[in-house]
Amino acid sequence: MLKSINIENLRGIRFNTNIDLNKKSLIIFGENGKGKSSIVDGIEYAITGDIKHISSTCREVSLKKHAPHIYADFQEIKVEVEFSDGSVLSNYKEPEKGTLAYRIRNSKLGNINILRRSQLLDAISAQPKERYDLLKQFLPLAEITKFENALKGVVDKFQGEVNNLKTEIENHMRNIQAALDIKDLGSVTSDNIFSILVNRGKQFNIEDIKDFKEIPEYIKKVDNYIECMGNINRDVIIRNFLNLLNELIDKKSPELFAKAIYDNINTKLDLVQKKKVVFYEEFLTTGIQWLQEENKSLCPFCESPIDVPSVIERVKKRINENSEYSTLKKEFQRDYSILQSELKWWEDNLDKIRNINKKINDENIENLCKTIEDDIENFKKLVPNSIQEIIIVKNLPNWNESIYKNAIHLKNEYSNKVLPKDAVLLLNEAIKFKNDLKIVYDNIVHINKKTKENTLLNKKYKIAKQFYEELVRQRKNSVQEIYDEIKNDINSYYSSMHFEEDIGDIDLKIKDSSSKGSVIIEASFYEKSGEDPRAYYSESHLDTLGLAIFLALYKRECSKNKDLRLLILDDVLTSVDAAHRINIINLIFSEFKEHQLIITTHDIVLYKEILELEKLYGGNNKYRNIEICEWTKDRGPILDDTKSEIEKLREHLTNPHTDKNILASATGTFLELVLCKLRYSLELSIPAKYQDKYTIVDIWDNLYSKLKKNKEFYRLNSKVLDSINVSKFIRNISGCHYNEWAQGVSKDEIKQFTNNVIRFYEIVYCSICNSFIKKSNDNEDYQCNCSRLQYNKKDQLLIS
């Protein structure tokens, strides 16, 4: 049974929420949105390491992202539940071996302890397959499901590999189909392949092929045929060379283009005119540059002020009016671009011829290339330095006529070296036939190999599938046996909830149609039997049906494992009316009286009904009742329970009838509680003790030394700290043991001790955020969660 629950930074709970149960059952009342389910989430997370309704919702909702409080990270979640033997289950450390916590963490039980209303609705209203998945989490199927999933993975793996092999074989067949131009894939058979190869081989006078194994030798025979016919590769090179020579012979020389350009200039302007035109433009152009660069404002001749932009504009206009020269210049620029493109053509063809000659290696071809290269370089030197230079003077080089003569000679020579067209066609066909033979052989080899692999893999697949199907059948039978076993309990519980009603006869059945599993529910409704309850039952009746099924499953599993007799029902009676609710609570309290119950509700009437019924089943000795009176985003749920320890201590202090020894004991106990909290929050280095059973002295000396190092903290609170340090013995001599010397300690001294402890509590505990001060950095600065209390090592206390 649970002894205590601690939850921090989980869901709607921000700061540490501690609930001491001391093996009692717990009833929690709170309005919707007050944090009831967050407490249930914390218990589930501590026990199972999961929160099912979050992790299994959908892909967009995850435990890591949505389990933490909105102001916390996943790593900041701290949940723990302590059991009756003192062992602890938490999300941040593993339980000790041999403890109750260890046995629960490693049990093979299904998730049978916690039921939420959403699960009731889903289990009843879902389709058979989805219903099976929902109910499966309440069944002890973890190991068999794990094994079944592993085997299913093997079956799927084999099936995937078989499919992949089939695809590979088909691809190899498609390669043969494309090579031999076969109409459809179904016609890619051994007989068709042989027929096509034999027919194609006849045109080369090669004997027939009789077996696929003969293809390599057959390819050699085709190679011999090709070699005897001639070198087709050299023939292709020569034909390309002849095409280039024909283009070269038909091409006009660059000299003709250059001569046409310069003749056009020289016929339009004589030398004197050229010089005048050039001088005139140079004069005007230089004048514009002089005015712009020197930033002048006076005329260079008469030194009168001038409007420079206006003058420049008029000068440019005058240059443009010199139309004869302007037109001539544009014509030359156009024609010169044509000359450059012609030279580029000759350069490109020169590179092509040289590349071919690397394979032919003919000295005459290289001589032709050298002549072309030299002439191109001569014509490239025509590039002008200025337009004036272009117009005034240029001497044109000659284009060597031997280029055309040598090209014609080479054309005649190599025209006699090409193969006849018929021979070329036959050679190309032989080469294609050789390549197709290689494709057929390579793909046939792969097809034979993959076919053998596929045959072996198919056997493994069928064996694994049969084994898997048998396992599924056995699992279904096992589940059906469980359903049959709990059938009486389901109907008994349902009858207790709805006695004197002519409904029930509940039956759960596994369908055989699904390999995964499907569950159908049948029930009676007055004269009708074997009906789907969704067709006739009300929402309340469906909810209680789901509850009856869950309680029966829970009872069955608890009978096999008594370690965790913990039943948690999270707001499951929302739709149930008052009369039926009392029936259900009576059923739960009586049927599971030896179990620890945690029941939440948002219905104040139901809560009061439960409180009244508790008196019949043990009252306060067995039940603890908590009301969540408020919830805030920053803090979480605020629990209204019996008075807190500090309130009890203050009552003892103000009550004049309190015995001094009781006051000393209560003060010491409270100081121990505060010190244990500070041990964690201030990260004190104290040797561990079994079950954290520390005394005041175990913690105080280390804490006292640590707090004194924070000079401002000690300066502000030294009186309290020093007084506690001196009087900490009072608890032991007056509050724990009887002795005559202890009677000498006056009540005033004990009250002073109590006041100092209360004052110490007030300076280390923030009542706003309900947290103790903790280290905020490595400089031994301390603050509470909301930073209202701040103790900086070098600064004075800040209270915001």
TrEMBL record:
Pfam entry (one): AAA_23
Cytoplasm in keyword set: no
GO molecular function: ATP hydrolysis activity
Signal peptide (UniProt feature, chain positions): none
Keyword hit for Coiled coil: yes
Gene3D superfamilies noted in UniProt: P-loop containing nucleotide triphosphate hydrolases
Any one of the GO BP annotations: double-strand break repair
Rad50/SbcC-type AAA domain sequence ranges: 4-227
Coiled-coil features, chain-numbered ranges: 155-182
Keywords: Coiled coil
Matches recorded under InterPro entries: P-loop_NTPase, Rad50/SbcC_AAA
Protein name listed in UniProt: Rad50/SbcC-type AAA domain-containing protein
